[in-house]
Design a protein that fits this description.
- The chain is mainly α.
- The chain has a single domain, classed as ADP-ribosylglycohydrolase fold, CATH 1.10.4080.
- It has 14 helices and no strands.
- The longest helix has 18 residues.
- The structure holds magnesium ion (MG).
- The site of magnesium ion has 6 residues, from α2 and α12.
Length: about 260
């Protein structure tokens, strides 16, 4: 869970100033948490409170998103999401942006059965990303987190994702030069997971994710969620620095979630 958040924080400045190298400062001035963190924590809180909810799962996700948007309106939300969150009625939006895939780490970590993970992801997309491409990307990320948590080996995870989602995982060295900012799901998800495949540690995965440029906070957030599930260890120095950037509310929910599901 913190793995995804830390990826978002590290990517937050590089989203605007892309670097095409793995050699960069992890937390330059201006590093902050963004919408990726806020909504990842909203998902975690939905899961932690599932047993209390009187509304159905789809609605519950949507209401938590709206609540977290109201708490952190300046976290860098996209315009389309903002309009959805500010609307007085609960409407269905058909976005194919990577916003659904960036927030699902908690789902991959919390559930013990892959079918449950996939159904839960679908619920998490229902109101904001009612679009096959977005749902597919979110399910692919959650599946990667789930399999990484189960300590499947990387070749096996890759094979499963290729087969089920028909993604192609191209070496980062082959895409880096021409990779640009585009928040389409199918453009962001495969390289984010590829960064994990090519890595040998949590930090290495994040450095590789940022090194292609593009939508860096979101890409590193997805990579970070999978990488933490797999490597378990996040260097203490990195964890502490990122924690100092989070506020107490986000820290509390994330801590509770990790205590329950990452022990
Ligand atoms: Mg962001």
């Amino acid at each position: 869970m913190f793995g995804a958040i830390i990826g978002d924080i590290i990517g937050s400045t590089y989203e605007w100033h892309n670097v095409k190298t793995e050699d960069f400062e992890l937390f330059p001035q201006g590093s902050r948490f963004t919408d990726d963190t806020v909504l990842s924590v909203a998902v975690a809180e939905k899961i932690l409170n599932s047993h209390l909810s009187a509304v159905n799962s789809r609605k519950s996700y949507a209401l938590w998103y709206k609540q977290y948007y109201r708490r952190y309106p300046n976290a860098g939300f996209g315009q389309m999401f903002e309009q959805w969150a500010e609307s007085d009625i609960l409407r269905i939006q058909r976005s194919y942006g990577n916003g659904a895939a960036m927030r699902v780490t908690a789902i991959g970590l919390a559930y013990e059965d892959l079918d449950e993970v996939l159904a839960e992801v679908k619920d998490s997309c229902y109101y904001t990303h009612h679009h096959t491409e977005a749902i597919k990307g979110a399910q692919a990320v959650a599946t990667a987190v789930y399999l990484a948590k189960k300590q499947c080996d990387k070749a096996e995870i890759k094979k499963k994702l290729e087969k089920k989602y028909h993604y192609q995982f191209v070496p980062l060295d082959d895409i880096r030069e021409n990779y640009v900012f585009d928040s389409r799901t199918s453009y962001s998800v495969p390289p984010a997971i590829e960064a994990f495949f090519e890595s040998d540690s949590y930090e290495d995965a994040i450095r590789k994710a940022i090194s292609i440029g593009g939508d860096s906070d979101t890409i590193a957030c997805m990579t970070g969620g999978v990488a933490q599930a797999y490597y378990r260890e996040i260097p203490k120095k990195i964890r502490l620095r990122a924690m100092s950037i989070l506020d107490s509310g986000l820290k509390k929910v994330t801590g509770e979630f990790e205590n329950k599901y990452l022990k």
